[in-house]
Design brief:
- The longest helix has about 35 residues.
- It contains 3 helices and 5 strands, in the order E-E-H-H-E-E-E-H.
- The protein has one domain.
- It has a 5-stranded mixed β-sheet with strand order 1-5-2-4-3, with helices on one face.
- With about 160 residues, the protein is of the alpha+beta class.
- It is globular and about 55 Å long.
Length: about 160
Amino acid sequence: MTKTKAIVTQTRFDNSVRPGKCKVYVGSDNTIDEQLDQWFSKNSIHTLTFKSRAWSWLSNQRHKLFSKLIAEALDVGVKHVKFSHKAGCSCGCSPGFNVTLPQQALQYTRNNVWVDVTISNEDSLMFNFLCQAANDKLKQDKQREANKARPAINQRNG
């Protein structure tokens, strides 16, 4: 049985990364990202006219799991891990994790770090349950938006 884990596959010094920090990029070839992409496509999140709380919640569940895995993979007593859409570039083309390191973690400071993630069947199944919970949250999102539109419709008719 495989265990959920992340392994560092590459590091590269980057002068633009601040001292005491590193940027971590996760390979997208894993079952969690596949499930997240499928949920996004199946529910046509890109066509919504409002910001989906369900999508934000489900994405954050992924980020929490990956933050924990990154901390374990770096194995230097990480202080803080936070996902950023603009970790590698201000245009958003390189999403990743900004990591704050302890002073003694010289191995990764001012580096770009790439990790590959292996997801256990158990964690993959758990994320599938989270996707199902996100379906309920999406229904609530849509109902909330429909309720916001109703008073405007009634005002025009009244």
